[in-house]
Predict the structure of Phosphate import ATP-binding protein PstB.
Amino acid sequence: MAKRIEVKDLNLYYGKFHAVDGVSLTVPPRSVTAFIGPSGCGKSTVLRSLNRMHEVIPGARAEGCVLLDGEDIYGSSVDPVSVRRTIGMVFQRPNPFPTMSIRDNVVAGLKLAGEKDKRKLDEIAERALRGANLWTEVKDRLNRPGGGLSGGQQQRLCIARAIAVQPDVLLMDEPCSALDPISTLAIEDLIQELKKDYTIVIVTHNMQQAARVSDQTAFFNLAGVGQPGRLVEIDDTERIFSNPAQKATEDYISGRFG
Ligand SMILES: Nc1ncnc2c1ncn2[C@@H]1O[C@H](COP(=O)(O)OP(=O)(O)O)[C@@H](O)[C@H]1O
Ligand SMILES: [Mg+2]
């Protein structure tokens, strides 16, 4: 199996608290991987460790390996800022810069990186907005504030912003949990489009969503209160939802807990 991401024996801490224990998994290129499991089992923590956002939290640290195309993103010579450009992130609550124009929201990262050519920025903005299935809805109001869009449009704006810097991987932490059902379906359709170009890892508390959008599913669980979260199993989504190897997975997906 081709590997875009390979995680090896990853342990994640917040100060002395051991939040996630010994995760190993691989993510093939141009696929969607869903993280599911009960609240507090470490899904967001693992996701944030995949682009070195975890360590931004004071006291937080990671032990183990995260390889992107065979290179350890935690290597001593690696710049975390460039990691975050290659591995973009979309959050639970859409977080556009509310007073900044739609166009400038999309190209904010590029402007920050020093790109000044207006024509080039316009081209990139259009490409990213098309890629995020938002172009036709906003093309006549690119100079209006991003905060004026609906929640679902704001989330697609954030996806446009994430893809404008041409990442390889997109991490999404419950990207639909603040959205209505129609906007949720729009994002799910978009994820199917995006996986032609990107590798996607999505945390979702919605098992139907995991079943609908993902190729493989990772089930995380907690052994008990105060215990670290751990990966119970990862497999083809179809198999996880029809015939998982572990009883804990079956109990969770059949709604017996969580
Ligand atoms: N910023 C933080 N500081 C300290 N502990 C945290 C922080 N974020 C999460 N945790 C703890 O780490 C564990 C895993 O949390 P999280 O990754 O958010 O779980 P999930 O996303 O699966 O709900 C939980 O016990 C949570 O309380
Ligand atoms: Mg979470």
